[in-house]
């Protein structure tokens, strides 16, 4: 399956040989497997975080965003150039810039006009995107039990719902607090505004959805393994899913999502982008991990800075200002929401080019 994923890209792994297996194996190990082990090691720390003030989670989120979170989408302007033949650097930059300006501007406008609906939309969008990222990581790694678009869509629901839905089930108080911080940037009575979103019925519905989708995905995987699919790929999928269930059930939401964003989602996407860059993929294949990362850091640096300028712009524009650590987190999340929608569009285009959703 992995060979098919890269069959039409312009990168080294789209060569006539099918795939640069050394680069793919190293990328999977460095950007997916090792971070998953690190998250497992951090489970006891995560389990203790509900005992600490939420500001600890805010600090972890800020550090993760500074370290790698903001950078993981900062190479979007080069994705068309590297993933499709015949696209010039100029066309690549212009196309992605227009997507970011139009979609990002629409998200910011939505928060000013209907902040509660925009918050719910951001949660739904992030659920989609983080599921999208994990499906791509599994498919690129070559698991073969997710053979149909429907099976991958189910995995998307599960994987995206783990960071977005499970904290609502396990830690609704802190989840609501973050919602109030975000909505409070735009309205005076944030608590009353978010009341309809945090009802017991919604928590129960999310819990039933997540439990049912997870169990169904496991059962379908068992059936695929019995039909000849690789058992190791399915065990990896199950192991990662159970690890994420434990992480988001035990850890306080802000801390859990901050660590996950940097250590899991962002790093997996960075690995995917490194494989798109011929020179970086070649360096990775030769064991020059630092060289591959230097190339990525160089490419991502300008727009990473641009992302922080977006955060500053939102902070200056919100009606009720920024006066506390929670407000700073809220402003960062609004800015991230504005960048997430166009980022999702670019990643969806890349998924299409690489055949992530093809049977």
From TrEMBL:
The keyword Signal does not apply. Its main location: membrane. It catalyses: all-trans-beta-carotene + O2 = 2 all-trans-retinal. Its cofactor is Fe(2+). It is found in: Cell membrane. Its EC number is 1.13.11.63. One of its GO terms (molecular function) is iron ion binding. The keyword Ion transport does not apply. Fe cation binds at residues 72, 129, 265, 269. Keywords: Cell membrane, Dioxygenase, Iron, Membrane, Metal-binding, Oxidoreductase, Transmembrane, Transmembrane helix. It is an enzyme of class 1 (oxidoreductase). The chain crosses the membrane at residues 31-52, 58-81, 93-113, 204-223, 243-263, 300-322, 328-350. Pfam families: BCD. One of its GO terms (biological process) is carotene catabolic process. It is a multi-pass membrane protein. InterPro entries: Blh_diox (IPR022270). One of its GO terms (cellular component) is plasma membrane. Catalyzes the cleavage of beta-carotene at its central double bond (15,15') to yield two molecules of all-trans-retinal. Belongs to the Brp/Blh beta-carotene diooxygenase family. This is Probable beta-carotene 15,15'-dioxygenase.
